[in-house]
Structures are given as C-alpha cells and as structure tokens.
Design a protein that fits this description.
heterodimer, A: alpha/beta, four-stranded antiparallel beta sheet, 9 helices, about 25% strand, B: about 325 residues, mainly alpha, about 0% strand, globular
Chain lengths: ~250, ~325
C-alpha cells in the first residue's frame, strides 16, 4: 500500500501548563476528506498549527508526501503542496480581493499576469468574481470565508487544511460552501477539515477523528463516530455526573 | 493620470531652473533630495511596513565612504557613491537580519534601527581617522569629476535624476511579484507564510534595496553641503526628515514620498528661515509636528491616496 499523503504520529505540544495536543496520530490519504472535530479547546487549531509549520511540536513527527516536515517553515510546506486557512480569517484588508488571491497564486506563477489570470479563475469558481476589485476589508463574513478558501486554493495544493470555514454562515451559505469543498475534492485535492458545523462534516468527511483535551478519543466513519459514547460524552459532558439515576 | 501628463510635469521640472531664483532652486534641490531619500525609505517602510527610524545611518555610511575614498585614495565620488551604497546595504543586511530573524516587530524594530544609527553616530564621532566629532570637510574645487559644480543648477539636475531613478526602481518593483509580496507582508505576515511567501527573504531584499539607495544619497549630501558631521548625518533628526515625507504624502504609494516632499520641504525651509531670522530656531520642527498630527488624524494613509480619491482616481487592483 502507498504511504498516506499526510502522516502524523505521536504529535505533542504543551503551552506552559496546558497540554494542547497529546500523542496525536492521524493520516490523510490522497484524495480523501478527513474531519477533525472536538469540543472547544480540544486542540484542533493547535494540531493544524503543528501540521502546517506555524508551531514546532515538542515531540512526534509529521510526514507529508513521504518526507519529514520537521523544521520546514509554512511557506516551504505551501510550496510542497499544503495550504491552510485560518479560523480567524486573515485577509489583507487594504488589498483588493483579486490581489489577495494573487498572493497565493504567485508562488507557482511568478509572472503577475499569469498569477492574476489564475486568481480570477479561482474567484470565478467560488462566485467572488464580482467582488474582485473591492478591498478585502469590505467583504461580508461569508465572502471573507470564501476569500480565505480562494487564496488557499490559488496555491494549487494537494492537501488543504480548512479551519472552520463554515462557522458563522447561514444554512444556504453553508450548503453552498459544502458543495464547493466537495467540488475541490473532486479534482483530487485531499482535505483535512476542522469543523463545528456537524452536518457539514458528516456529509463531507469519509472519516472523522475526534479530539478531546488534546487526545484522540475516537476515529472512524461519521455515523459510527457520532454514536460513540465517548464522543457523546465529550460533547455533552459526563451524563452520570449529577444526573438522576435512570 | 496619463503618461503625457507625467512627461509635461517632467518637462516643466527640467525647464524650471532657467527661470527660478537661486534661493528657489535651492529649495527644489532639497525637495528632490528628500523626495529621493523618502522614496528609498518607502520600499521598506512604506510598501513592506517595516518602520525603520535609522535610515540616517545609511546616508552617513554612504557619505563618509565616498568622501574618504575621494580624500584618501583619489577615487571619484561618482564611483564612490556606489561603494557607499554597497556598504550601506551591508549594514542594512545586518540590521534586517537581526530584526527579521528574531521576529522584532513594531516598536522593537523601530528601537533596533534607532540603536544602530546611534551606534554609528558614536563610532564616527570617536574615530579620528574620519574626522572624529568635527567630521569631514570637503575642499571645494568646482570640478564635476569630483561631484562638485560651480553652478547650483547642476545639483538641481543631479537631485532630480536621483529622485526619478529611485521612483523608477520603485515603479518596477511595484509591478513585479517582489512588490506585490511586499504590500501583502505589510498587511499580514502569517497569512503570507501560509500562502507560500518567504517573508524573511522578501523583507531582507526590501531592506537591501532601500539601504543601498539611501547610501547613494549620502554622497549627494556630502558633496552638496561640503561637509559631514556625525551628529547630523547619523542623527535621529535626519532619520525623521527621511520618514516624515513619505508618511505625510502616502507611505506605500509610488508618488507619496514626492508629494510629501513638495509639501514639507518648502514648509520646513520657509519656517526655518523665517523663524530663524527672529532667533527662534527649531520652530520649523513644531510646524512639522503639527502637520504630522493633522495627517495622522485626518489622512491616515497620507495625502496622495486622499488626492487620488478626490480627483476620482480609482484604487489600484
């Protein structure tokens, strides 16, 4: 069997007294969509930071496309084909929408004209073409989420790390974005997805990894994970504590 | 604005010395020279958003290098100015490496640049071989090979050429990947990294180009004023003079530094001579301060973006 696209093993990160991620292992195969879920503070975003090179792990290893990413910086990982979005969106507010996306495209298209053409194609695909000339700071929340996705996509990744791109969107917007993520995946881009919107993860991910207090507590197909008592407990709290006997 | 308008503006500037008085020519020389320095600073301070308040150090190193090479080795300042620029770029690389490798941002980067300029000032003041605290005086020969001219108007054209050249460099940078990356680095470095931009490399390059150009300006400074004193060429006041014009005119815009220099230089010169006659030295600094406060309050992106909006110009894509 071929080695997975992304292979995380025994990853740990501590911030002072807080063990943010503990002995985390997970893998993403080529073309797969994996969901990473867990209650607030479970360490999902920290795990993303470790995988994408923004944070250095205390221990553990990350292999991407068969090579260790230890010591690689985020821009080097991006050049290798890994792109991420940020949960707290980070548009370049004073730059126009198309410029924002060009920054992602310029890595593989050094000529600004090529990069702009590429950026416009991505904006078209994500339904942002009408906004290309506006400063990114003027976009609505839903549009900024799309912009975040468009920029990452413009880097032409093979693995896309999406950090809560659906949160704060209404149902129609979420539905649309789910379809778009599915289409991106349909072109062979593997996706690791942090998401709070359960319906979106359930319908997108083929496999889900559940984190709680930095540790993996469950992994499997969406339905199996949703019915796992440990997962239910993590989300709803321990039902036996202070609850009336059944 | 169309290219014809720019050509017309250039033609006017080329013809002006024929009709202007000597005093007004002097003011124009300073407008161009500070416009040039502001444009050089603009690359790293405006486009890239790395606030260097130590650019005087590059002027000093450039000026001292060209002057010493001329005095000691007889090398023409026309060549010495590029060597001075190169040495300034070496210092720029050291400052940038320390600042960017260790992730100094905001005030900490400001302090680092100020500290380096101050160290240079103190060193220059204490090295007797380069004139110590008294500095260097350049004998006037009026020989163009020695970067000296009998006619003021020659300095006018040299300063204009410097400003045009720096603006040309910035115009080219602005259009290329390098310049586009710089504007994004100014907005959000982490997002840049995530999108594949080697922020360290591009910030270093911005500082190299900026310090090299500023160093070249040092030669003009030395051979226009015929003297170099550590307290003036390496001093904080010169660094402030360098950055205040692009900030007032519009940092990170192609014409901001030039517009800023056209606004501030005459104001500074007129208030300096007007109040100076009354024995009130330094009042022009108060005028600067008031203007700076007004710009920060009412035109936070500078005068140039404001004017382009006013005249119906559209922001660049």
């Amino acid at each position: 069997m071929m080695a997975p696209l992304l292979e995380v093993s025994g990853l740990s990160k501590r911030f002072g007294g807080l063990q943010a991620v503990k002995d985390l292992s997970l893998a993403v195969a080529e073309g797969e969509i994996v969901g990473l879920i867990g209650p607030n503070g479970a360490g999902k975003t920290t795990a993303f930071g470790l995988i994408s090179g923004f944070l250095a792990p205390d221990s553990g290893a990350v292999r991407f496309r068969g090579r260790s990413t230890l010591g690689l910086s985020p821009h080097e990982l991006c050049a290798l084909g890994m792109a991420r979005t940020f949960q707290i969106m980070r548009p370049f507010p004073r730059l126009s929408v198309v410029r924002n996306v060009m920054i992602g495209a310029l890595g593989r298209h050094a000529d600004p004209r090529d990069a702009e053409a590429r950026a416009r194609a991505v904006l078209d695909e994500l339904g942002l073409a009408a906004k290309s000339g506006q400063p990114a700071g003027s976009l609505t929340l839903a549009e900024r989420k799309r912009l975040e996705l468009a920029r990452a996509l413009a880097t032409e990744p093979v693995l896309l790390l999406l950090d809560e791109v659906m949160s704060g969107l209404n149902e129609v917007e979420t539905e649309r974005l789910v379809e778009e993520v599915r289409a991106i995946n349909g072109r062979g881009v593997a996706i690791l997805l942090i998401e709070h919107v359960m319906r979106a993860v359930m319908s997108l991910a083929g496999r889900i990894v559940v984190l709680n207090y930095g540790e993996r507590i469950a992994e499997g197909r969406p339905q199996a994970v949703a019915n796992d008592p440990k997962v239910v407990e993590a989300y709803l709290g321990d039902e036996s504590v202070g609850a009336a006997p059944a | 604005m169309g290219p014809w308008l720019w050509l017309a503006a250039l033609a006017v500037l080329l013809a002006l010395p024929a009709v202007l008085s000597g005093y007004v020519v002097t003011i124009f020389i300073l407008i161009f020279f500070y416009g040039f320095l502001g444009q050089a600073w603009n690359i790293v301070g405006g486009y890239t958003g790395q606030l260097s308040v130590g650019h005087a150090a590059f002027v000093g190193i450039g000026g001292y290098t060209a002057a010493m090479l001329s005095i000691e080795a007889g090398l023409t300042p026309w060549i010495g100015m590029f060597i001075g620029g190169a040495l300034a770029a070496v210092l720029g690389a050291i400052i940038a490496y320390l600042g960017f490798r260790f992730g100094l941002r905001g005030f900490y980067f400001v302090l680092l640049t100020v500290a380096f300029a101050e160290v240079c000032r103190i060193l220059a003041s204490n090295i007797d071989a380069i004139g110590g605290a008294l500095g260097l005086y350049i004998t006037f020969t009026g020989n163009p090979r020695q970067f000296q001219f009998q006619d003021q108007r020659a300095y006018y054209y040299v300063a204009l050429a410097l400003m045009m050249a720096a603006t040309g460099v910035v115009a080219v940078i602005e259009r290329r990947r390098f310049g586009i990356y710089l504007t994004a680095i100014r907005e959000d470095e982490a997002a840049c990294e995530a999108l594949g931009v080697n922020t360290f490399k591009y910030k270093m390059l911005a500082m190299l180009v900026s310090s090299f150009l500023t160093g070249i300006g040092g030669t003009f400074y030395a051979y226009y004023l015929f003297s170099l004193q550590p307290s003036t060429v390496f001093g904080i006041p010169l660094s402030v003079e360098i950055i205040i014009r692009p900030i007032v005119g519009g940092a990170g815009t192609l014409l901001g530094p030039i517009l800023g220099s056209f606004i501030l230089t005459p104001l500074g010169e007129l208030s300096r001579s007007y109040f100076g006659q009354g024995g009130m030295y330094g009042v022009h600094l108060i005028a600067y301060g008031v203007l700076l406060i007004a710009v920060v309050l009412f035109l936070p992106h500078g005068a140039y973006p404001y004017l382009t909006r006013l005249f119906g110009g559209r922001p660049r894509a």
